[in-house]
Design a protein that fits this description.
The chain is α/β, with parallel strands linked by helices and 178 residues long. Helix content is 38%, strand content 15%. It is globular and about 40 Å long.
Length: 178
Amino acid sequence: MTLDQFETGLSNVIGRPSSLRPFVCDGSPFDCEVFIVGYNPATAMEGDWWRFWKAGYGFQKERWWKEYINQRGGEISKTRKRIEAIVADLSPVRVLEANIDARPSKQKSEYPTPVTTPFDFLLAASAPKVVIAHGTDAVAHLQGWAAIGKLISCKHFIYVGRERTASIIAETKAALAS
């Protein structure tokens, strides 16, 4: 699948414009060897997700990051801090952040049954070597994928400390090296 074909397929799944947040990465999702997957985005972004997409390039994380920080009033959640720490420690490896349910909400109880079609499309179209799943729902959803690549599971990132984060990074690096 080409990036253009992916864009068309994703557009068919999430619509255009879209208030969903199917994933965040820098560039093409096909270049991402590691996925970090949770339940759903906690921060609803104003506007269309596609404004961060550039044909022929992919997702523009830097543009998204600036708006994300602005819309959150400059504050970063504990989950986001954990994600960014893992991404930084794995650099130059490319990392994609996604959720099994792309609908943003502050509380999981708003969407107790996940709609996973966008995520399932993304995972089927991509070939990550490692998936870090945080939270019981994400871990459960990815059990079938574990036969394809390395699945690293943990509690939701709000409950993960520095020691477990270091072991997740070490497990990821070891899996990428093998």
